[in-house]
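To the wet lab folks,

You asked to see what we're planning to order before we commit. Fair enough. Below is the target structure as tokens, and below that is the sequence we designed to fit it. If anything looks off to you, flag it before the synthesis order goes out.
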């Protein structure tokens, strides 16, 4: 687990630790990036105070700023959440992921949404000779990753269009989907089959299959994925692992959701 940064807001600026905590709580309540005015109201703060505290939270990774004056939870907050889970139920989460890795021999990731990105909260390394460059705490795009597609597949048409307008569709490789129409069609396929594929769309020579982790009311809070090197594991062998990934996602939902 990556080290987290301490909050640096000081009580002598008139904010006080309780105000910072109320603002973090307000950020955590929303699945989508939130406007400053809404955050200030939810945290019972003035807009100038909320804006000043957000600058501190952003600097230390507790929050992230998005286009349009919106703010979301940052990677440091996600890492802290993972450590809280570790203190309580993490043994179950970790054991489920390790069990999957030992069964299939490939790299396993667990990722959660962090604003308009995903952040890896867990990784179990492959037993193959080629190591993935990813690490816990790494942020990745939503549109070009299997985990991210699982999350985007849970959005309605309007929310997806707003996301694309706000975050854009960066071309990561020659295979990346870079138009709203192409992404919309891909997400319809993800919903129909229940899992997502990353066909070298985020990184050349890396192919992934991912399954969503859903709450009881159907919200997607994250996903579990298996990543392979294309010149080591053929595509059909990766697809053969999808049932194992889907089963693991269901087991994790009982623990995380």
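Sequence we intend to order:
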């Amino acid at each position: 687990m990556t080290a987290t940064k301490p909050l640096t807001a000081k009580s002598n600026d008139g904010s006080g630790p309780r105000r910072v905590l109320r603002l973090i709580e307000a950020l955590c309540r929303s699945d989508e990036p939130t406007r400053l005015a809404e955050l200030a109201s939810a945290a019972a703060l003035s807009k100038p105070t909320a804006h000043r505290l957000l600058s501190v939270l952003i600097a230390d990774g507790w929050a992230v700023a998005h286009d349009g004056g919106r703010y979301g939870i940052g990677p440091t907050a996600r890492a802290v959440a993972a450590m809280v889970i570790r203190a309580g139920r993490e043994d179950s989460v970790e054991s489920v992921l390790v069990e999957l890795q030992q069964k299939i021999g490939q790299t396993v990731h667990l990722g959660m949404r962090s604003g308009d990105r995903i952040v890896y909260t867990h990784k179990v390394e492959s037993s193959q000779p080629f190591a993935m460059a990813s690490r816990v705490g790494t942020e990745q795009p939503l549109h070009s990753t299997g985990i991210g597609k699982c999350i985007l597949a849970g959005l309605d048409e309007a929310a997806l269009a707003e996301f694309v307008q706000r975050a854009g569709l960066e071309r990561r490789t020659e295979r990346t989907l870079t138009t709203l129409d192409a992404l919309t069609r891909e997400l319809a396929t993800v919903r129909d089959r229940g899992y997502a594929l990353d066909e070298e769309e985020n990184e050349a020579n890396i192919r992934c299959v991912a399954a969503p982790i859903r709450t009881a009311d159907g919200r997607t809070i994250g996903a579990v994925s298996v990543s392979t090197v294309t010149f080591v594991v053929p595509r059909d062998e990766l697809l053969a692992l999808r049932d194992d990934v889907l089963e693991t996602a269901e087991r994790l939902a009982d623990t995380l959701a």
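Structural context that might help your review: The longest strand covers residues 220-229. The domain at 11-73 is CATH 1.10.10.10 (Arc Repressor Mutant, subunit A).

Thanks,
Computational group
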